[in-house]
Amino acid sequence: MEVRTLVLGLFQTNTYLLVEDGEVVIIDPVSKSERIQSKILEGERVVGILLTHGHFDHIGAVDELAELYQCPVYLHYNDYELTQDPQKNYSQTKKIKLKSKLSFYEDHLHLGQFNFFIHHTPGHTPGSVCIEYKDRLFTGDTLFKHSVGRTDLYKGSSQDLKQSLRIIAKMDPHLVIYPGHEEQSTLADEFKNNPYF
Ligand SMILES: [Zn+2]
């Protein structure tokens, strides 16, 4: 297994490519589709696009890549409205409104050879999720290294975030976290050093 990281866009958001035996899952295709494409090697097959939530700085290249790779796109149903309304996803002048067919998460997701656990962790947005694969946890803007996502945006909720952190607190401390912004960490380190736990 390999995780390739690209840092893209105005807010330096992380796009992750999760690669296993020639199959690729794109997590949060931020923007600059051609740069994401350039990280996918000859012979590799994109089997899906997964979104941690619906904010503009995580979804800018979804339509282009879904069309190019003819792959499904998944998000949590509660963030669907964000992807359809530039005011709610804060894309401003870019006016992002996804046209791709969108599928909604259940607790488990099978894509190619990948088996994901999808944890609904609202707070930053109502449809924020953490995506677990083997010993990795893609946390979007729910959990950052030593911090958490803001809750003052559209339909954010600090109460929901607190509850979501209680869910994360029960997870395996060995999980390596891959946040939507900035660097990786481990849950063990977060439980010890993140003041929000
Ligand atoms: Zn966000």
CATH class: Alpha Beta
Shape: globular
| Helix and strand composition category | alpha/beta
Mean pLDDT: 97
* CA-CA gap between termini: 29 Å
Helix content percent band: 10-25%
Q: From the 3D coordinates, which CATH architecture would you assign?
A: 4-Layer Sandwich
* Share of residues in strands: 25-35%
Largest sheet data: 6 strands, mixed
Segments where pLDDT lies below 50 for 5+ residues? Answer: none
Strand tally, please? Answer: 14
Describe the structure.
It is a single chain. This protein has one domain: Ribonuclease Z/Hydroxyacylglutathione hydrolase-like (Metallo-beta-lactamase, Chain A, 4-Layer Sandwich). The chain has helices at residues 33-38, 62-69, 80-83, 86-89, 158-169, 187-193, and strands spanning 2-8, 13-20, 23-27, 45-50, 73-75, 102-104, 108-111, 114-120, 129-133, 136-140, 143-144, 147-148, 176-179, 185-186. 42% of the residues are buried. The protein is built from six helices and 14 strands. 21% of the residues lie in helices and 32% in strands. The model has no long low-confidence stretch (mean pLDDT 97). The protein is an alpha/beta fold. The site of zinc ion has 4 residues, from loops.
List keywords for this structure.
197 residues, alpha/beta, Metallo-beta-lactamase, Chain A, 6-stranded mixed sheet, 6 helices, binds zinc ion
Brief overview:
The chain is of the alpha/beta class.
SSE map:
Layout lengths: L1 E7 L4 E8 L2 E5 L5 H6 L6 E6 L11 H8 L3 E3 L4 H4 L2 H4 L12 E3 L3 E4 L2 E7 L8 E5 L2 E5 L2 E2 L2 E2 L9 H12 L6 E4 L5 E2 H7 L4
Parallel strand pairs: 3-4, 4-5, 5-6, 10-13
Antiparallel strand pairs: 1-2, 2-3, 7-8, 8-9, 9-10, 11-12, 13-14
The structure holds zinc ion.
